[in-house]
Amino acid sequence: MKSSHRLALLFLLPSVIMVGLFLVYPIFESFRLSFYRQILTLPWLGEKMVGWENYTDLLTDPVALQSLRTTLLFVGVTVPLELLLGLGMALVMNDAFRGRGLLRAVVLIPWAIPTVVSSQMWRFIFNDRYGLFNFILFGGATSRYFAPLADPYPALLAIMAAEIWKATPFAALIILAGLQGIPDELYEAASIDGATTWQKFGGLTLPLIRPAVLLALLFRTIDALRVFDLVFVMTQGGPADATNVLQFYGYKKTFTEGMIGYGSTIAVTVFLLSLALSSAYVCVLKKSQGQGAAS
Amino acid sequence: MRRSALLLTCSLGIALFCLLPFLWFVLTSLKLPAELTAIPPTLIPSFYWGFYQSALEKYRLLHYVANSVIVAGAATFITVAIGSLAAYAIARFHLAWMRYYLLLLLVVSMFPQIAIAGPVWSILDRFHWLNSYQGLVSIYVALSLPLGIWILATFFRDVPGEIEEAALVDGCSRLQALYKVILPLAAPGILTAALLVFIYAWNEFFFALIIMTNPTVQTLPVGIALFPGEYTMPWGEIAAASTVATVPLVVLTLVFQRGIVRGLSAGAIKG
């Protein structure tokens, strides 16, 4: 018994070291640093303990508050749309008999494209002089062409569109896995009982794919909270901070302005936000799985 | 009959939604400079390879490709090696605290990058590993271990214990049993995990950006994001480099889509 314990530990050790050193220790270090003032460009100041000062600064920093609002808006708009579109896609893929494999492969392509590449691609499509977007809207009337990425609201919408395009297939595949787990006999039994297509969808399909949908919701929310690549490539947080999401703001404070302490405070805020949301989902997920097992 | 027509239309719509934007970018890379800015847009390009040539020669594209191959390849190999050991322990030794380790892995895989970025940078700085392959590979290994271990453990559990016990009776050590019996039998799982880690490392941008500030070691995503252009963006070259960065992934995805979908949903449903 004892020797198997030791052997198991030995096998786990390399992974424990990597995860501990590069993921677990840094999160605690970020917490610690968020109570200090440390500025990379002013090294002679050293590390100065400032208590909650960084946090009170954060609450009175209009850019940070706007950044928080932008991030929540981004999550709140993209994730529900991705789930809705993803559900539609999954239903089609589940029903398509011929070419289902091909369709599933095609759907994986936006997911597999590097985000930096899809960001440049959308930036080109939204170009103000020869972008496809302007051509589709205004045709040859070049005098009406505008630069969506240079206007606050259009820029945010453009980034949301790019995110939805890339992430919907992922949501669709998770939901599809849930759909494929439903035994055909259930539908046959419902048909014998005279259920209509809509009754089957509302009474059978939806409740049974609830865990898969919740899971997609969890993954997509966590991922949308840490959006960075799209913002970095398409807008650099602009114009006028309209797309300055928290992860980008934290990056800018820490790595371009060298404000290690304040940057850590933003980092901790993003972390707590994502932890709170994911714990809430996991609770709901556990509960719905418990119900599924009980019924 | 009408139902199948509707289904076909929807399927076609989904395929176009997924393919058209990127196809447009690929076509852009094959246009003549004049076609690139033409209004109305040129649909069929002249298949001019000048932008590829310029990306290769002027912007040293191959150099970034080589860096990406090294970093993603090494990260994949090391993650699968370390992950297999851990997944074997998880699948074979049923110890009470193992569940908490799996839970910890699940939690750390949800960290936003910025939450650990500063301290990770400081650690690598202390090792003098900034702007080095081993620095970027280390953080990629750490970040992809959770998903890797989850997938590998799922597949290892499916290998019947009796086969391995026979090997142990025949005098194999646990380590030998792992790489002589389990690894070959769980090959589809290893392939799936390796693919997902490779795609992750090939596409990753955030850590590559903060760790690789020196262009000689930068990976493709950093090169493509920081494409130099003062007044007009070199769109033809960007599109060419983007195509080069994406085609290998698209081929991998199309060839192994079954395994990838299974891996994504294995990680998802067990989670």
Provide the β-strand percentage band of chain B.
Answer: under 5%
Structural class of chain A: mainly alpha
Strand element count of chain B: 0
Q: CA-to-CA gap between the ends of chain A?
A: 39 Å
Tell me the series of helices and strands of chain B, N- to C-terminal.
Answer: HHHHHHHHHHHHHH
Description of the structure:
The complex is a heterodimer of chains A (295) and B (271). Chain A has 295 residues and is mostly helical. Chain A is built from twelve helices and two strands, in the order H-E-E-H-H-H-H-H-H-H-H-H-H-H. Chain A has a two-stranded antiparallel ribbon. The radius of gyration of chain A is 24 Å and the shape is globular. The two termini of chain A are 39 Å apart. Chain B is built from 14 helices and no strands. In chain B, helix 4 packs parallel to helix 7 and helix 5 packs across helix 7. The mean pLDDT of chain B is 90. At the A-B interface, helix 1, helix 3, helix 4, helix 5 and helix 7 of A face helix 1, helix 4, helix 5, helix 6 and helix 7 of B.
SSE blueprint and pairings:
The complex is a heterodimer of chains A (295) and B (271).
Chain A: H1 2-33, E1 36-37, E2 48-49, H2 53-60, H3 62-95, H4 100-112, H5 115-125, H6 132-138, H7 152-180, H8 184-192, H9 197-225, H10 229-234, H11 246-256, H12 260-294
Antiparallel strand pairs in A: 1-2
Helix pairs in contact in A: 1-12, 2-12, 3-7, 3-9, 4-7, 5-7, 7-9, 9-12, 11-12
Chain B: H1 2-29, H2 33-36, H3 50-57, H4 61-92, H5 98-108, H6 114-126, H7 133-157, H8 161-169, H9 174-185, H10 187-203, H11 206-211, H12 220-225, H13 235-255, H14 257-270
